[in-house]
Write a structure and sequence with these properties.
Distance between the termini: 55 Å
Largest sheet: none
Radius of gyration: 22 Å
Helix content: 55-70%
Structural class: mainly alpha
Number of strands: 0
Amino acid sequence: MDHATKELQLQLALDDLNTQLKPNYGRTAAKYEGVERTTLRRRFEGTQVSRRVANAIHRQLLSMAQEEALIKQINDLTARGLPPTSDIVHNLAKEIVGGLIGKNWTRQFVQRHRDQLKSLYLRNIDSMRTKAKFAPLFKLFFDLV
């Protein structure tokens, strides 16, 4: 079972626990595939967080709320017909952080949130790199023309 499916099962189990008057962790964990009783109890009591939240707290430059705000800003600019380039996203993140960010941060951010971002400029970076490999073919075409 992949991580996303386990996280979904755990969320369903947590929702089930919220409907119970007296939480029964063992029965609820058995009801949902791949859910451990201790993890379910810790999450329900708030003493443990998901891996995504833990990474946001300890590893990510921006908090989850800041990343959501940046995604919203990128999508708003795209909707207005001004899709931001990776340099613009880099500058926006630098303003949010109030300091320097790594040179690869933007690429990792776009990769992490590719499903939520609407900007074509950000998504097509890899396809532009692929097209650059065919530069000799383009040169040959224009030489013939």
